[in-house]
Amino acid sequence: MYLKIVNNNPTAYSLRQLKAENPDVSFPKSIPSATLALYDVYAYTRPDVPSFDANTQQVIDGSFEQDAEGAWSYTYSVTNLPEQEAAHNVRNERDKRLSETDYLALSDNTLTSAMRTYRQSLRDITDQSGFPFSVTWPTKPE
């Protein structure tokens, strides 16, 4: 992956673009970084997407950053979803977890005390002080 510095702004760029913009230049199959630098083109790395809670957060592409050694990378940032959307997602997750144990609550089945507590804890998710951005999910009993 490559970037090109245009008006002091790094932008995503490809070697195909470099070759198309310079049709009179015969580039080698593997272009050395020193040659790329003559055209203000540099390789960059892209780190793995950071871990995040998809119910309450989103990953946004960040920007190009250059470290002290001159190496370029492309960053990500994790931001909270709007509160209403996050609350909706957390409620959906809660409802999904409840539905996974609904069959145990049928009249001809007897819920264990642990399962009753688990299901009630799921129902109480919206009452937690950090809802929806800081939710502690109960552990499903075996």
Give me a quick take on this structure.
29% of the residues lie in helices and 24% in strands. The protein is built from four helices and five strands; from the N terminus they run E-E-H-H-E-E-E-H-H.
- Following the backbone from N to C, one meets helices and strands in this order, namely EEHHEEEHH
Report the mean per-residue pLDDT as an integer: 94
Percent range of helical residues: 25-40%
Structural class: alpha+beta
Largest sheet geometry: 5 strands, mixed
Low-confidence stretches: none
Backbone CA Rg: 26 Å
Assembly category: single chain
SS element count, helices: 4
Give the termini separation: 47 Å
Instruction: Indicate the overall shape.
Output: elongated
Tell me the strand order in the biggest sheet.
2-1-3-5-4
Q: What is the count of β-strands?
A: 5
| Strand residue percentage | 15-25%
Can you describe this structure?
The model has no long low-confidence stretch (mean pLDDT 94). The chain has 142 residues and is an alpha+beta fold. It contains four helices and five strands, in the order ββααβββαα. The protein has a five-stranded mixed β-sheet with strand order 2-1-3-5-4. It is elongated and about 80 Å long. The protein has two domains: 2-80, no CATH class; 83-127. The chain has helices spanning 15-21, 33-38, 83-99, 113-123, and strands at 2-6, 9-13, 41-45, 57-66, 72-80.
